[in-house]
């Protein structure tokens, strides 16, 4: 086994603070990567980061190359049909309202250099959310969020010099009630999970589910069968005592104060949901900044 192959299969051998995915491709991965470049020559240029995610994301499939080609072709077609490449070029309709009803924020970098994303999908009653944004609207906003994370990863990669294509995600279930067990919540949520799994493979480092109440057991029973086993293995379900686990991956000064960290860039004394105007302003400014870097 070559040194590069050894490192790629043993991320612990990488220096502290280096994303595990920055390890070199193994010889088998390199062969698949080259064949993908040849197969999709007419679709080039495809982001190298995307090709590597698909190469590694389907490495355990029985018919690895054929499966990878099929999944990548589906993704390219989906991106074309939904104008994904330009989704960050201009605001989506009623953006600020979506931030109010579905609080989310891109905040800080993990100890290994991954961007960290927070959201509270249970902040609003699902019937109110669906009255304002139908399932297709919610898919569109979720795709916008995923594309924003891809841009942040590329900036992290440029800043650090290390390949970075994964993220740490924190899903806050504060506010979860029996109303979230119905199809008004589960159908849009499942649509978002499918976007992540089918079109953004190998994008998740760790997902922390925090403030999970007892009732979450029912929701988890519905959600878990939708997940690929590799995705499910990267999920950590925590209650209100989540902070010590989060600190294992994210330094305290990178965790926002409203989740118990020492980063005080947001106003003190307010919850995540109450800061939707602040997080939306941050999002707009960051989107403009990242678009200028392209």
UniProtKB/TrEMBL annotation:
<dbReference type="Pfam" id="PF00650">
    <property type="entry name" value="CRAL_TRIO"/>
</dbReference>
<dbReference type="InterPro" id="IPR036865">
    <property type="entry name" value="CRAL-TRIO_dom_sf"/>
</dbReference>
<dbReference type="InterPro" id="IPR036273">
    <property type="entry name" value="CRAL/TRIO_N_dom_sf"/>
</dbReference>
<protein>
    <recommendedName>
        <fullName>CRAL-TRIO domain-containing protein</fullName>
    </recommendedName>
</protein>
<feature type="domain" description="CRAL-TRIO">
    <location>
        <begin position="94"/>
        <end position="267"/>
    </location>
</feature>
<dbReference type="InterPro" id="IPR051026">
    <property type="entry name" value="PI/PC_transfer"/>
</dbReference>
<feature type="compositionally biased region" description="Polar residues">
    <location>
        <begin position="1"/>
        <end position="11"/>
    </location>
</feature>
<dbReference type="InterPro" id="IPR001251">
    <property type="entry name" value="CRAL-TRIO_dom"/>
</dbReference>
<feature type="region of interest" description="Disordered">
    <location>
        <begin position="1"/>
        <end position="28"/>
    </location>
</feature>
């Amino acid at each position: 086994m070559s040194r590069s192959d050894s490192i790629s299969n043993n991320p612990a051998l990488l220096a502290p603070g280096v994303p595990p995915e920055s390890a070199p491709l193994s010889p088998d991965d390199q062969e698949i990567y080259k064949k993908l470049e040849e197969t999709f020559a007419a679709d080039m240029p495809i982001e190298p980061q995307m090709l590597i995610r698909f190469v590694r994301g389907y490495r355990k499939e029985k018919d690895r190359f054929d499966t990878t080609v099929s999944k990548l072709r589906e993704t390219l077609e989906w991106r074309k049909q939904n104008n994904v490449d330009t989704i960050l070029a201009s605001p989506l309709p009623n953006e600020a309202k979506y931030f109010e009803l579905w609080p989310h924020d891109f905040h800080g970098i993990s100890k290994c250099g991954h961007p960290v994303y927070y959201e509270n999908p249970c902040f609003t009653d699902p019937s109110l959310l669906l009255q304002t944004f139908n399932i297709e609207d919610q898919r569109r906003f979720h795709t916008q969020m995923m594309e924003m994370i891809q841009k942040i990863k590329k900036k992290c990669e440029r800043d650090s010099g290390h390949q970075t294509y994964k993220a740490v995600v924190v899903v806050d279930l504060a506010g979860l009630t029996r109303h979230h067990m119905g199809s008004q919540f589960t159908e849009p949520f499942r649509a978002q999970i499918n976007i992540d799994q089918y079109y953004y493979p190998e994008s998740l480092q760790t997902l922390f589910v925090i403030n999970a109440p007892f009732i979450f057991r029912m929701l988890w029973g519905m959600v878990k069968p939708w997940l690929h086993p590799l995705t499910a293995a990267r999920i950590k379900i925590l209650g209100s005592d989540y902070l010590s686990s989060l600190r294992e991956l994210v330094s305290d000064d990178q965790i926002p104060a409203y989740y118990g960290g020492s980063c005080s860039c947001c106003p003190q004394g307010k919850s995540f949901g109450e800061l939707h105007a602040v997080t939306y302003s941050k999002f707009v400014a960051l989107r403009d900044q990242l678009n200028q870097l392209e």
